[in-house]
Specification:
The protein is of the alpha/beta class. The chain is built from 16 helices and 12 strands. A hairpin with a 3-residue loop joins strand 2 and strand 3. Helix 1 packs across helix 2, helix 1 packs across helix 3 and helix 1 crosses helix 13. The radius of gyration is 23 Å and the shape is globular.
């Protein structure tokens, strides 16, 4: 279902900040293609059909031993075919036109989805020109203005109204995840020690703190009971922000009144929601964490990882501004931080090459010491559309948030289980082993915990029904309580 089709029962909602960007339009086009079971001609592979390759939540296990893939294996995992996709953008370009201009997908597929995408709604974006590169300013004409743009408080309230009206308009019955996929912001200099302090800063109309647009979207998400995923490199997540998403903060125990500042944002949701990030670990960085883990598993001592990548999409254009580049370099350079290996020299270079467009090219050389100090060197080279790498992670983040919330998973477990999605896992996932396969084990461990909890609860409830202690109706009510 998209913003232009009739309401239906859905399992999840995906709201994208930066919907008109390459990632946003590629995700929406992919969702339409899968929902409509489209096929199209390609230049290299002949005719292909829509699929969810790369989305671990959407593909089934495969091979003799199952392999990676969770659809059909995990009961209750939502289908992205039935999701609602919407969002905001500071540019007014129609989504079908934006898809055509970004040159990510095959022309025959673009032709088939273009009209439906052009008809989709784009909500006006909240923006602050001081946070993004000057290259983005000229086209930022589809922005929140007037009374809604007077202060941080009015901007947050506008985003909250957008979320509520979008949910109602499109009949979204499942969990909603808000995903930051807009341009990378420069780092915010605002620091808060608690969610109360964060909300007070937002509520104060005279506040001139350095509060970024991504922080406003995250705050609005928490207050509306939506998960928030920071797909950018900026420092949106903090201990105060993470605490705001904690249900115990938004739902005081024993009937106690909520904090005085939180009450000023009433009514607010107490639904379970998560705050995840930072920056999708999609291509080069994901392979680095797997490759260096492999080298360490061999008993080698990795000493130098020297990498470069170049592409020419709008995200890289935004990074030509020094103030935003620092945010990107922080996460790219810090991916091995939790290992605390001072002898590992990690070098990163990113380059803007307009001709390359969205097709990222990356080169990495790994140099390690082997037996008796003998050097070991290997090289990798990768080419792929950047959005083709990122979109599956956006889909999986939203589907996992929906599944974990429906199953009462704690914020810490949800953050650790999704750490594999991010360059630098922050919030509740901070310090998780950066090795890709270690992170996949974290996901499997959380899924096993859910399975064991569900099995134990069902056994006890079934026993109660068999003994005549409770009715089937009461059993169903108890099962619903278990996942809250």
């Amino acid at each position: 279902m998209t913003a232009t089709s009739a309401p239906m029962q859905v399992s999840a909602g995906i709201l994208i900040v930066g919907l008109g960007g390459n990632n946003g339009v590629t995700l929406l086009a992919g969702q339409i293609a899968n929902r409509r079971r489209l096929s199209w001609e390609t230049a290299t592979a002949g005719r292909v059909s829509a699929n969810w390759y790369g989305c671990l939540t959407q593909i089934p296990p495969r091979g003799v031993h199952g392999g990676v893939g969770f659809q059909g294996r995990i009961p209750g995992l939502a289908s992205a075919d039935r999701a609602v996709v919407g969002g905001w953008d500071i540019r007014p370009t129609k989504l079908g036109q934006a898809l055509y201009e970004c040159r990510v997908l095959e022309p025959d597929l673009v032709r088939q989805v273009r009209q439906e995408m052009d008809d989709a709604e784009i909500m006006e974006g909240v923006w602050d020109p001081s946070f993004i590169g000057e290259s983005q300013h000229e086209t930022a004409t589809h922005v929140v203005a007037g009374e809604d743009d007077k202060s941080t408080r009015t901007r947050v309230e506008r985003i909250r109204r957008d979320i509520r009206s979008w949910r109602e308009k499109h009949g979204v019955t499942g969990r909603v995840t808000v995903i930051w996929s807009a341009s990378v912001e420069r780092p915010s200099e605002a620091e808060y020690d608690s969610p109360d302090e964060l909300l007070r800063a937002v509520y104060d109309d005279a506040n001139d703190d350095d509060v970024s647009p991504s922080m406003l979207y995250a705050i609005a998400s928490a207050l509306e009971g939506c998960s928030f995923v920071n797909g950018g490199s900026q420092n949106t997540l903090s201990s105060a922000m993470t605490r705001l998403f904690d249900r115990s903060y938004r739902t005081p125990d024993d009937g106690a009144s909520s904090s005085s500042i939180l009450s000023k944002f009433a009514p607010h949701s107490s639904d379970r929601a998560y705050c995840l990030g930072t920056d999708y670990k999609a291509g080069q960085t994901k392979f680095k964490t797997a490759a260096v883990e492999y080298l360490r598993a061999l008993g080698l001592s990795p000493r130098v990882v020297a990498s470069s990548n170049h592409l020419g999409n709008n995200d890289m254009l935004n990074l030509t501004t020094k103030k935003t580049l620092s945010a990107k370099m922080r996460v790219k350079s810090d991916i091995f931080g939790p290992w605390e290996e001072p002898d590992l020299d990690h070098k990163v270079c990113v380059m803007y090459a307009p001709y390359i467009g969205d097709e990222k090219r990356d080169f990495v050389e790994y140099t390690s010491l082997g037996f008796l100090g003998s050097p070991h060197t290997m090289v990798t080279y990768t080419r792929c559309m950047d959005s083709i790498l990122c979109v599956p992670l956006m889909v999986d983040a939203a589907i996992w948030c929906d599944y974990f919330a429906n199953n009462g998973v704690s914020a810490g477990d949800a953050a650790r289980a999704t750490a594999y999605l991010f360059k630098v896992p922050e919030g509740e996932a901070k310090g998780v082993d950066p090795g890709f396969f270690h992170q996949m084990k974290e996901l499997e461990d959380v899924l096993e915990k859910i399975s064991e909890k569900e099995k134990g609860s069902n056994d006890v409830i079934a026993l109660g029904v068999s003994k005549g202690i409770i009715s089937e109706e009461q059993a169903a009510a108890l099962r619903r309580l278990v996942v809250k």
